[in-house]
Every structure is written in C-alpha cells, then in structure tokens.
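Hi all, posting the design record for the shared folder.

TITLE: backbone redesign
STEP: 1 of 1
STRUCTURE INPUT:
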C-alpha cells in the first residue's frame, strides 16, 4: 500500500511529542498510518520501518492511548484518529495522571503544613518465606482490573494462583502483565500463562514484586547469594504502590515479549 511521503520531524517537534509520553515506535507507526490511511500490522511495519516483533505491542499501545482505532476483522486493520482527536485523548490521559500525582502531593504535605501529624503509611515487614508467599497470593486474589507481577522464579502454587487470576481478569477485560526470569521462559506453566496474560522475560536481580490496581503491593527482597526471597514489604500506601508501578513499567519497557 502506497501513501503520502512523510516529512521528517525536526528536533523540537520530537522533543514535544516525547513529553506527551509517546515512544519513537509509536510516533513512526502513527505517522505511517496517517500516510497510508489504514493498514494491517505487517503493512504498517513495512511503511514505518518498525520490526514486526515490535509492531503489535506498538499498535496496541496506540489504541490504548486513543491514537488509532481497530477494525477487528481478519487480518485486523488499523485506522489513525485525526490528530485533533488524538490530541484530546492524550490530554485526557495526561490530566488524569497529573491529577493523581497532585492529589498524592496535597495529601502528603497539607497535614504537615497545617501542623497535623501526617498520615502514617500502612507498611508491614514480612520475615518468613511462607508468610510472604501467602501475601503474594492474597494480593493477586484481590486484584480487580490490573495485576503486575515481576518474579524471576515462582513456586508452583503461585503459578497456579496466577493462572487462575489472569483467566478471571481476562474475562473482565482486565490487564495482567507478568515478567519472569530467563530460567522460567520455557516452563510449561509459563506457556499456559501466555494465553491469558501478557508475559515478558528479563533478568530480575532484586527479588520482584506484585502490584494490584496500583493500590496494594508486595515487594520481595533477595539477599545476595540466595535464590529465594526471605523478606518482603507489604503496603497499601498509595504513594509506595504508585512508585512500585512506575518501576515495574520501566522494567516492562525493557523486557522481551514471550509470544503465544
């Protein structure tokens, strides 16, 4: 499919677009779609010069951000939204994030300014292996629409719980993202998990963690020289859960996708 020639963006425009939270692949895919008007993933990959291994997650992200819409036929075709419509979608997303951050800012500092004792974070240290895995399962079970998991090596019962929860969230149109270590890539249970969750692989050295709905978190800590966590931090504090989610998202962006 032949489209209009895309004029390269200058550095100032690139800087502005990056501040909106768009990756280079997302910008290239959207620009290519504007040129060809609509296309399949492979057509967009060719037009934008994006590896086919990256195009699907790029297009999924663009759909989530409101820059493209999808005709769910075989094969699926992607259509770019008008830039003004896309800009409004980005504005709404950014405003929601900023409002959440501002609320956290006010709730953290207003009590101090007003001479009151700040709210005490709900944080617990878990010092037994059995208890920390029980906390992990509890956090998974309480997830409503979003679950983020980064654990290099999981015990069988944790895998089974994750399979069950991810299947339930998939039915609810929820989102489950799982990062596993390289040693877990080819396990049969990991291959099953790919059917109900988004799974990626990368080295995880600190131990891992589980976050549900960006509001409850268990951080697993591994002592150097040991293979399994013996200590964990559990918290329902919104700020800590938010920081954990941001860190997870950073790991996710630099992980390799495991395909079904």
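Okay, here is what came back for every position:
SEQUENCE:
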């Amino acid at each position: 499919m032949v489209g209009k020639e895309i004029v390269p963006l200058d550095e100032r425009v690139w800087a502005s677009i990056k501040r909106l939270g768009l990756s280079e692949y997302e910008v290239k895919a959207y620009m290519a779609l504007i040129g060809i008007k609509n296309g399949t993933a492979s057509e967009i990959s060719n037009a934008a010069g994006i590896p086919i291994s990256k195009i699907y997650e790029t297009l999924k992200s663009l759909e989530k951000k409101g820059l493209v819409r999808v005709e769910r036929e075989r094969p699926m075709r992607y259509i770019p939204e008008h830039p003004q419509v896309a800009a409004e979608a980005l504005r709404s997303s950014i405003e929601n994030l900023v409002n959440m951050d501002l609320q956290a800012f006010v709730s953290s500092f207003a009590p101090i300014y007003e001479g009151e004792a700040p709210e005490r974070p709900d944080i617990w240290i878990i010092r037994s292996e059995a208890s920390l895995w029980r906390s992990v399962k509890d956090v998974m079970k309480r997830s409503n629409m979003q679950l983020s998991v980064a654990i290099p090596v999981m015990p069988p019962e944790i895998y089974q719980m994750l399979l069950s929860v991810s299947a339930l969230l998939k039915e609810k149109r929820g989102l489950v993202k799982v990062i596993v270590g390289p040693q877990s890539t080819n396990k049969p249970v990991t291959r099953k998990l790919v059917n109900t969750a988004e799974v990626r692989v990368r080295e995880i050295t600190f131990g891992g963690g589980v976050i549900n709905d960006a509001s409850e978190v268990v951080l697993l800590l591994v002592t150097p020289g040991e293979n399994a966590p013996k200590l964990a931090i559990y918290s329902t504090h919104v700020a800590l859960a938010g920081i954990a989610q941001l860190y997870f998202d950073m790991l996710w962006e630099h992980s390799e996708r495991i395909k079904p």
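COMMENT: The mean pLDDT is 85.
Let me know if anyone wants the other runs.
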